[in-house]
Structure formats: structure tokens, C-alpha cells
Amino acid sequence: MAVKEVSIGDIGARAAQADEEFRGDKMLINMGPSHPATHGVLRLKVELDGETVTKCDPVIGYLHRGDEKIAENMTYNQFVPYTDRLDYIGPIHNNVTFALAVERLANLDVPPRCKAIRVICCELARLQSHLLGCGVYGMDTGALTVFMYSFTQREKLYTLMEQLTGARFTTSYTRIGGLMRDIPDGWLGNVRKVIDEMEPAIDEIDKLLSRNRIFYDRTVGVGVVSKEDAVAYGLTGPNLRASGVPLDLRKDKPYLGYDQYEFDVPIGTSGDCYDRWLVRLEEMRQSIGIIRQAIDKMPDGPYYAEEAKKIFAPPKSKVLTSMEELIQNFMIVTEGPQMPAGEVYFEAENPKGALGFYIVSKGGGVPYRMKIRSPSFCNLSILPKMMPGHMVADVPVILGSLDFVLGECDR
Amino acid sequence: MVTDTLGLVLKAFIVIGAVMTMAGYAVLLERKVAARVQGRPGPNRTQIPILGSIPVIGTFLTRLGVFQPAADGLKFLFKEDPLPGHVNKFYYVLAPMVAFIPAMLTMTVLPFGAVTDPVSGATSPIVLADLDIGILFILAVSSLGVYGIILGGWASNSKYPFLGGVRASAQMISYEIALGLSILPVFLWFGGTLNLSNVVLGQSQVWTAVVQPVSALIFLIALFAETNRLPFDMPESETDLVAGYNTEYGAFKFGLFFVGEYTHIIIGSGVFVVLFLGGWTLPFITLPAGTAGAVLSVLIFLAKVFVIVFFFMWIRWTLPRFRYDQVMNLGWNKLLPLAVANLVFYAVVIAVIEQLN
Q1: Does A49 touch chain B (CB under 8 A)?
Q2: Closest by alpha carbon to A123, among A96, A150, A163?
Q3: B103 is a domain residue
Q4: 3 state DSSP class of B276
Q5: Does domain A67-308+344-410 have CATH number 1.10.645.10?
Q6: What ipTM, to 2 d.p.?
Q7: Pair A160, A194: CB distance under 8 Å
Q8: Alpha-carbon span B48 to B53, nearest angstrom
Q9: Is residue A13 very low, low, confident or very high in pLDDT (cuts 50, 70, 90)?
């Protein structure tokens, strides 16, 4: 057996050789990081045999910012704007999840009104995310109109976000122990109006695609993820549920009082692209139901934890009139919300799946170490398993059905 | 003789100008239809300095987007025309022309109106060349258009265009067969003539689409595939192949592909109207003789073409896209047997009718 010698210094040649081995007589095409199908800056190295994908190698990291390291250098509240940029399709849910994680660390319970507002925020974010997911999914199969229909609805959600937080996109709405501010007058009425209009729009999207023969042929039996694979690869969210695993953290580990709301967890049967589409559509309807319930029983009371003097900065009116509140405000702004030493892992059912924050605290206002468990990262890990055997035209459909966002995957 | 030739050249220029304008406005129509389907206003800002500033009409035309095709065309013309270093220059430059010229050529044999002589009452079609083998000419020339796409895909020396070119060749050749078979019954029905004008005159009472709905359906589906329109736009399916065969093209070369595609749609719709929707005639209505009748016949023809072009656009913005293997499956396993069965059925029917007579 001939041994081929490669000098240690000749890394370029070895890389080229590895590349050749990868290619064989097949064609290697690069999808992304700039490609109409990759939803952001995902790069896929796809090996093709004719039109059939034989190998798929996702390359991530084009949007890496080092959020986890950045978190070590700032107070908990200062990190909230960074969570906007994780899953930027439904940013307000990340705010809530992060605040919940830190509050779990401090063993702090927020008042019912704060919880109800946060539930509305979470479900609005889910609508935002799934509307985009379904719209882009339609676009990936070639139905551009669905995308426009869903974006018409998303636009209204952005307007709601603007009324609530002052920003349409980067909401940064939560604070540790509460919210940035209470909901504005009449906002709940606006929400109700928007979701009333949204229900027929979702039905319209459903009617346009779900029973469409071409869409059906494109998605049924494509990108099948078995129950076992879905669990083994750590899939969460709609992608897991489409494979038939009824895991929804809102039901299984209730937070924010989700156990007091009535909603169903839609699950799929075959785990193909079509099931993922149906699960997302149904989840939007369930979200609308949850928002209705939250609006109906919106409790009165404070929107932040008043007793947590070292965590939530008091309202401005009190800061300007009372000495104690002035000091309290000064300490929280300069030192950050005071956390006990310890570690916590908390995950919530984000639109894309389970977003988890693992926080190690040595006390004080700054985390010692933080790890973000991002659902998109785990959901993408199954690509090399799913893609082989499908055609090139299936690649965007599978990507669209997984509904990932690279801001969260790359962190 | 000389004046005849000159007249023909003049006519040709008029028709080419008209079709080019129509292609430009088909793009505008596409954008407006897409906008209406998707609940948007569509192009409504482009203005031409003097025309656009006329108080009411100018604003109205601007809102309608009437000046948009001019802006689109000028953009293609004035952009830098890059020639990538890795392409085969000769074929790269040749491809857009090969795609564009056949599309324009097919309309020479397409009758789009008729003049009735007031004195003798004889009807003669308005057509550049009233060939006896009109449909054969159309089939022959329009299938040349695929070479433009294959060449473009191949000469670009790039992976996505290559895949697009390969898909285009397979798809268009497959559907050519169904297309050819679907129109045979039509010519059988009209006594074996291949002249398009005679086909139209034969439909003055009842349209072929009524007599042979299956032929019309197969022809329409194959036409979608031939013109690379969604749901059959495999060669440039933008979600997986970026822009398919024209990924490496820009500026005016892309413009030629683009205009060629829309010309193809207009001419294809024209052929459909001629073969199946009675061309310039209306059932039960006799057009007046002379110039007025001629103008009216052309307008009727254009109106029918407009309906078909609109149908093309409506479909495009409503349906998702097929997958490549599904397209081939539909073409070979469904349309082809259907077309053959259709042909046999009508051959038998026509034979029986002739026996009875």
C-alpha cells in the first residue's frame, strides 16, 4: 500500500485534496451565504449527483457576534437589547425568555398583570414568527403571493409592537422583574382588532396552499424526520411536534401561568414538510386563542415586582421625589440588578423551539458566564441527515419548513 | 415588385414595433397583476418630464404606471454590460440573441386580423407571410428558442446556469411533443390544412376550444412549460437555482432574455387564440367590410390575446412551482398519453364523420 507523504506545512494542498475527495465525480455547489433560499446567511455545501443531493454540509457562523461573551461584560438589563437580535423574527419573545431565566435565578415571581402582558407578547411573537415562516415557506415552493399576504398581517403586528414598546423591530421590552412600561391605553383593543382580522387571513393562506395539489406534491413525503431522529437531534418547537412528539414547554413545564390558559398542542403524524406547515398554521390559531383569553382576564395591579427593590428600578416619578428610590435607581443602573450566586437553566417555548439560557452567577449585576441554547442551531443540525436523497428543488422547501433564523443559530 | 417588398418591410417593422411595445407593457401588466393579486399598488411613480406633468391625465397615467416600461427598458440599456471572465464569450453573447430572435420570428406567420373587400366580399387575412405550412413554421422556429437558454446556461460556465440549462433542454423538448400532438387534431378537424388563416376562418361559427377542449387544455399546459412560466419555470426557478440560466447575465443581455420571454408569451397566446379561440372572429357576428372591419378584427384578436396573457400572469402569482421530476412526470406520463389518446379519438371521429357524409 502506497503511503502518500504530505508535509505538515502544506495545509493548502491538503485542503484542496480533501475538497477533491469530497467532490468525486459529483458536483459541489455552494448554496449561500448569499442565496435566495437560505433565509439569512446559512451556507450549504451541497454535493449533487445530477439533480439529487448526496451530501449536505451546513456551514454556519456568518452571523456570529459572540453574544454569550458579550453578556459577561454587562448587567442583566443591558443584555436585553442583545436578545432582540437572537430570533429577530419574533424579538419580544426572547426578551421575555431572558427575563424569565434571570428571574428564575433570583427566585423572583412577577405580578399577574406582568405575566399576562408577557403572555400576550409571547403569542404575538409566535404569530410574527409563524407568519414569516409560512410566508417564506410559500415563497420557497414558488407561491410568492402567500408571502405578501402573511407580511400584510405581520405589518400590523409591528404596529402593535411600536405602540407597546416604541420600537417596531428591536423591542427590548422586558426588564428583570418587570417590563419597560405598562401597556398603553387602548392597546388591548388594538390587539383584539388585529387578531380578529388575522384569523380570516390565516384561513386564506391555508386555503391557498394546504389543499393545493402542487404544494401538496412538493411537501408530502419530503424531508421526513422520524420521531426518534427528531428526539435524537434535539429538535424542538413545531419541527419536533410535526414529527409526532407532543412536547410543548408551555404545557409540560408551564411558566407565565400558561397552565391557566386553554389551548391545544397540534402535532403531526409523519414529520414531513407538509406536517410542519400544518402544525405552524394551527399554532397560529391557538396563539390567537391564547391572546383572546389573556385580554379577557387581564388583571389589574402593578406591572413589575414591587418588592424586588434590588432588581427592578422604581418608576421615574418616585425616583425624582424620594431619597430611597433615588438610591435604589442609582444602584440598579450602575451595578445592575442584584442576583444571588448560583446557576440556572431556563428554557421557554419560543416560536422556533426551546430557547434556553444557562446563567452562572457569582452574585452582583453581571453574569459570570452565559450559554444560550438556541433552537435554530439544534434544528439545523439535522440537515446533513435529512437532505441526502432529495432533489435540488427540495432543498429550499426543507429549509423553509425548518423555519430557522441565523441570528439565533450563530449568536 | 419593389414597392411590394418595401411595403412588406414596412409592415414587418410596424409589427415588430408593436410586439416589442406589447412585450414591454406585458411586463407592466405582469407587475400590475402581481400587485393586484398581492394587495399592493404596483408601479405608480415613474414619470416622463412633460407628459407626466399634465394636470389630470399625467397623474392618472403615472398612477397607472404607463411610463414604467420605458424606465425598465432604459435601465437595461444604460447599465454597464459586464462580460464575466470565466465565460465562453462567443456563445455567451450569442445566447440572448438566439433566445430573442425565434420568439420574434414566429409572429410572421401569425394572422392577427382580416380585411374584407367591400366590393367582392372576399376576406383576406392580415399577416406578414400567409404560409401554407404556418403551424409547422411556428413549431420549428419556436423550438429554436430553447437553444438560447441551453447556450446561455452552458456558456456561462457556472453551476447554477448549467443546471438551469440542463433542465430547460429536458423540459422544453419533452413538452414540445405534447404540444405538437395536441394541435394535430385541430388541423385534422379543418380538413388537413396547415394554414393558420384557414383554421381561423373555419372557426367563424364555433371555436375549436369548444369542439376539442382536451386539445386546448394540453396545448395550454404545454405552452406554460414552453414559455418557462411558473408553475413550470424550472430553468430559472429562483428559489433553488438563484436565476437559473440567466444568473450570469446582466444589463441588456438579460434584457433580451427577458423581452424574449414575454414575446414568447404573447406569441404563444396568439397561437392559442388562433388555434382554439377563433382568432379575430367572433361567433355569430359578421364584421363590417373595409378598414373599420380590419381595425375591429385586429382589436378583437388583441383582446383575446390579452385575456390569455392575463391568465398566464394570474396563474403565475397564484400557484407554487413544480419540482423538476414532477414536471417530467407530468409531461411524459400524463400529458403525452392523453395527447395521443386525444389524437386517436379525434382521428376516429373525423373518419366516421367523413364516412357518414
Answers
A1: no
A2: A96
A3: yes
A4: helix
A5: yes
A6: 0.81
A7: yes
A8: 8
A9: low
